[in-house]
């Protein structure tokens, strides 16, 4: 039983102290004033009862835990072994229901991949390697469910054996629904498909469940077939080589609006479409049947431009596959609907590759500007000669931009908004002159606008205006959102104007003019405010904006059969001849289709009402008896916004300075003069500068400093002050005022004065300041003039950081898959198509994405892009590299190449790990995972621990170090090296100090030890049963008696087996002298006589007690006592004195009580008399019956006699007055009292025989009274009489 107890974690706190109430130390000991020690038998009995109770509770807990552990039978991706789930490789969680790392897929032609039975976790990476068994197979993936966070959590599918293989798709958001299960199929270039999932550290969603099938059919084999030996076997009702021809009839029966002839629908009049499901009055989206086999691959954020002749030109764009960015130019000939590849003239320089750029056509040349090229945002401008097919690089723009738009206005190229790596989200307009070849940043007027990335813009040539809609913008370095704003820009007057909001914020959509209307399509409506919610990333909405009426109209969705096909972002759109062509885009995969969008026909509408409401890409008007097209510029508004003339200006200056109309500024809005609002003004001078009020919108130094009204303070953009220069006492305040500059005092570095400035030089009135002491928009930092004049915007931008650590320390975002640093709010601008497969903003996580940082095979393969090179010793060590199934991968620029020289094929592991995992400290037995014998000082099944007496983490080939404990411990913590000190009171990492906070003293170094200092005449109890006490085997004490004329009684009581040594020292004998050694500690008591030992004074004898070789849990009681003999003379004097004092105290208390009660009775009588004296007086008439002769009572029966007695008793006179007191608990009762008449029947002559009496009574206390029975038989019934009048005297 004792051995079993030593294995339990006991934490008993037994009270084995003396009868007096003890005080307890922090160290777990307790002490009390000495008054005798409990009997040893009582101590042992109590201790055994506590141990028995603990064993019962522990047994109950163990059985309970066993029953709970049996629940692991529900393991999802693992096996239940010994009551716990042991997960398969690539899974984790208590029930193995969360994917993690490389998941091993069972070989076969079909299977299922999913992220687990529960919502996926944050910051997660999982990967699957699917093996078709042979090359040139086709894979079909069917999405049963898919829900991840849009734009942030992606499932990547690669046509190859690694994350470096060509990317086929990047799925995100909501894909499909319960009714429609999307499918993806593609032809394998090898035998593998690599799939990996990445989730950031923000939100989690249900995840995905996807089934896959390999077969050997061609890619065109439709879903209406089963592949059998490379042959499409059609389902019933389908035929053709690819099973895509319906045997009988047409699909959907031509929507009941057409005739099916030879498997094709011939629509009735008024209907059109493949299935005759679109009326001629609706907007019609037609898939252009391209002739020939040549076609561009799926490209997004490309530019599609009309050359004003007969062709559409396609430049660049982001695409998936072997090349992530398009390098080719394609031309679509409208006449024969064919694509042609344009071959460029031999030239050393060209703008490729890039996407997110803009392209315009002007005088037989295309002008391409900006965009992203090799991960960098560009500011270069290129021209492409239509005749020579040659590129020429022109003057670089003032800023780099991506996600902008551009239009040709006269001889200028107008560039609107975009995102810049240096300036952030731009609200500026740039102009490039085709004639002069010069760039300029336009100083605009009008409304204060907020520009951004991914907007659309259209040029209304008839009105001479540019309409800018939607986009992604940011107002701080960490926040960003979408907008549904519509701006109007006048390139002639450089004025901005607000138009009607659409009510649907979006970005990466497209827009074009058609019949004087602006048509917008698609884009993403997901914003950061929706993060965590389930939503689709791509839309297929059509919206129409009518500038004449300043109104928006949502067009009906296309038919359900085509809605999933049209969902996309980043498509290109161009308008010509009142038709719109749309190409490409992105919807988890790159889109390669070309659509033509045709407006509705006014002639379809047969009523005036339907004609006037037509908005399907055309405006109609009812003329006499038919509907016809309304010519552009003529207004026919059903719902017109009449307030748009003034409400389009959102600042005071733009409201009062506009040239279009006369407006008033009232409070915070611009209104027409007819509004009749209060607090209005027309005085422009009273307006505060609008830009200055909104300096906070500029997110970095460069964008802030280009506005003279604002000043960058180092962390934020603030409004410049407008005080007089002389009022600024510091350089920091001075430079905030654009009209001032700082003149440094001669010979000083920190003092100076603020003076007027003219542009960037001292004004004529302040010309006394020498130029070498002049500072404008900056302050002197050092005596070095060159250092002082460094621009305040010299801090490196995020884009210039080249390492993860430096990037994250600069509060930027690092994308490890691109080795690129970007601003925290620019993820969407750089990686909207899922290009970044792993990112972080925390420097501590930088190593996680670096393969070389991982030291074990399992950790290495948990990163999708990594593989393991086993060490040639085959002991479990190795190196983690970027890799694929074929071998390690070396990056050459942005290309990835397999380099087998880095690791031989026989030692390369990508989809599994070597069996032997002994961390470099042992080989394995006969090609198994069992380590032969771990090299000392390592131990464990995989040599993963240090042996006793050593510490460290011997994984990854590391070694163990010996424990250093000053000879005060037998072992230490196997990982940290913290010593397990065996003596209570010895503390420290190396057992090198005493716990002086808890009264331990001494020096444990060099063979010394620590003692607990005991105070004489106190009894101490030490409880060593807590978990932190389990390593103690020794405890030491010392005591120095203080009284020189008394003996010392020593008592020691131990709860279990231990041994004691007692020694003593003094000034006369400084060396320890033994008193007892090796004595068994059970109950030990002895006396040290003062005649043999010198106590107190100069002798100063000190006793040392050593208790050792015990095992916890252990309790002991110890005391040193110098008792004085009882003096009987003093005892009796004190006793009788106390007794006499007690008697006097009792007598005094009784006397006080008697006085108090007497006083209270007097007060009560006085109150009663006062209440009676306050009674009101009144007259009352009383009727008194005449007294009759005695009635001869017939006593013939006993019952009649009883009744007469009751009647007599019941005829008592009642009260004539009852006067309640204020508290309604007492009252004064007034009664008529009959005076006694003696033996006569009447009162004597001259006396009335009546009197009036009063009494103070309690109200409401009813008292039951019973009658005395007449002697004789007891009546059969007894009745309690209750009187309702008060009858209790107060």
UniProtKB/TrEMBL annotation:
Residue spans crossing the bilayer: 1128-1150
Subcellular localization, as worded in the UniProt entry: Membrane
Disulfide bonds, paired cysteine numbers: 99-126, 934-943, 946-960
Residue ranges of every copy of the CUB domain listed in the record: 99-215
Domain Laminin EGF-like: 916-962
Xref: InterPro entries: Beta-prop_ATRN-MKLN-like (IPR056737), CUB_dom (IPR000859), EGF (IPR000742), GBD_ATRN (IPR056732), Kelch-typ_b-propeller (IPR015915), Kelch_1 (IPR006652), LE_dom (IPR002049), LMN_ATRN_NET-like_EGF (IPR056863)
Keyword Signal among record annotations: yes
UniProt keywords, alphabetically: Disulfide bond, EGF-like domain, Glycoprotein, Kelch repeat, Laminin EGF-like domain, Membrane, Repeat, Signal, Transmembrane, Transmembrane helix
Entry membrane topology: Single-pass membrane protein
One of the Pfam families matching this protein, by short name: GBD_ATRN
Database matches in SMART domains: CUB, EGF, EGF_Lam, Kelch, PSI
GO cellular component: Golgi apparatus; membrane
Listed PANTHER family: DISTRACTED, ISOFORM B, LEUCINE-ZIPPER-LIKE TRANSCRIPTIONAL REGULATOR 1
The protein's name: Attractin
